[in-house]
């Protein structure tokens, strides 16, 4: 993720906080302004309305700008915000009285707090509006009380609120940014896994394509099967097209019935007459459709080669939201368990091909009973719903996208929750030990009794310290500790409400009314907002009950209580609503957006890597396989020429070694050698293979260079050959003795002998030495590789 560009979580958090600031300020200004107008004298109402009315209108325009942000330049928005603050401050001397003082302090205080969220990405603008709010508050206080000095306490309280708001924003944004970065690291790891899986799937498909096309063609030419080669030129040209095409798993749809109607039946004696019974159309994604088509084509080829019959039946039908295809013949049959793992026709071209596209394939056969091959594909969603816990062999695995998305949302939500709880804890402690502590110390003579208020203060501090200890250690607050803390906070509210004179409720001596909500908020942050709303309702209810027990309050007292409740408890409730939105709205949205961005990046990487891999594969075949196919396809090379057949045998052996490269075996070098040996044995060559020493680890690039000279000699031998592998702790040597049918014209081995070390690899420091010796009609070739010193030290350290 780009360090200069905010991640999805951070962007959505900033957007949510901006909208929260606008809505909070607008609601508080309108409600508190309305209560202030109600408490004003009848003669002052018109002038108060003339000041607050435009402020209400500016709030409405500011709310509308959230829906149409492009219609409002930033300068106009800043002017609207400044207008609200100025008009609010000027209304204080017009309304007059205690209600006006409380109203303006609440409206301006909430506004300067909200500005820190509205203008979070432009802190200078937010700071300027906060300074303007403080100036207007002082001006209104001076105009409403000309004979008194400036009361700095509300001003200091307002500045503390601004600082806490900015600090809370920075904490939440930092945690959201950290969540984005951690999610980006995890997503990058998943992307690498998905890209690697896609590359492996593409590699398997490409190898299966080579097996079905070029490898089969070259092997047939090398064996000299038949005298009618009329089928060879078009077949060679088709093989070239298949090799140059990029195999992919497209997301489009194809008609499987139309594809099956194009399955080639072969030419001349190798033709297989297909009886086709397809219930069409069968629309499925093109990836599975092409996999089934290519598998059927390979199965038809196997019928022509091995079944002993020239007829087969091809059936296809829809099954739910998928399709089933079946090819059967009445030939000689075989035992599938007896087929060598290195035979790629069934395992690679049919079964593995279907597994790569989340489908399945099965081969049923017995000697003298014919063969039936069946392909099945269903949409992954249906397969996922149909699973009952156990996964059958070969069944497609459920998609992991939803699981990964849920995990990402849970991670972002956890980081946001931790950030908001830390921010609320900071506000609770700073507020309690600055504003509340001063009020408690100054008004000790007011409380009845004072020790109860002091004990409540200590209890509230203990709740914050205990809860904060869990948070700072990165642990969730246990339920028992949470509910003990909530009960203690509610007890503090009751004690403070009933040990304070009713006429002073929510006034300057009431240190607890505005702070207990913050303590409860960081305890209840991970629950639904209705739980926190119930706490605030109980808190306000206790204070209201204490007031009523002392007598019915006046209209002014009602207005003061209402404004104080809106400014403190209403603000805290809105913060609780914001936290719920962040956890249950912003976090899923951030997870979805991050998943969408990651999907795009993954697709781009897969496309780029597949294109690069394909070019590298085609480049590797250009020097050897492609010239052969071009010559055979255009008549420049004749299959009757013994030299051409020898070259085809060499290329067939090289391809079989390439196919074996993907096998998961304990000794890859020996496995790839055996693949080359099997090709030679198909040519009628008797090969003896001897291995001495304990096998070790050999890089892929080195194995290719060690085995290639062996493949060349085995491909040119038609009688007997001997292959030997010798392992030592520091080296491995592979040698082959065979006949020299090239008559000294073996260009591949001559180049290898003249250019020692042509397998040098930057990652392995590998150097393969090839020595070729002619002795009469035989040729001996030995390829050796010595383990680099660095690798030896690592192996020794690992053993030690």
TrEMBL record:
Q: Where is the composition biased (Basic and acidic residues)?
A: 741-750
What keyword terms does UniProt attach to this protein?
Answer: Kinase, Membrane, Transferase, Transmembrane, Transmembrane helix, Two-component regulatory system
**Keyword flag Kinase:** yes
For molecular function, the Gene Ontology terms on record are: kinase activity
Q: What is this protein called?
A: Histidine kinase/HSP90-like ATPase domain-containing protein
Q: Please give the SUPFAM superfamilies that the UniProt record associates with this protein.
A: ATPase domain of HSP90 chaperone/DNA topoisomerase II/histidine kinase (SSF55874)
Q: Which PANTHER family match?
A: NITRATE/NITRITE SENSOR PROTEIN NARX-RELATED, OXYGEN SENSOR HISTIDINE KINASE NREB
Residue intervals of the Histidine kinase/HSP90-like ATPase domain: 295-377
Which stretches of sequence are listed as region Disordered? 384-404, 741-763
Q: Which Gene3D superfamilies match?
A: Histidine kinase-like ATPase, C-terminal domain (3.30.565.10)
Q: Where is the signal peptide?
A: none
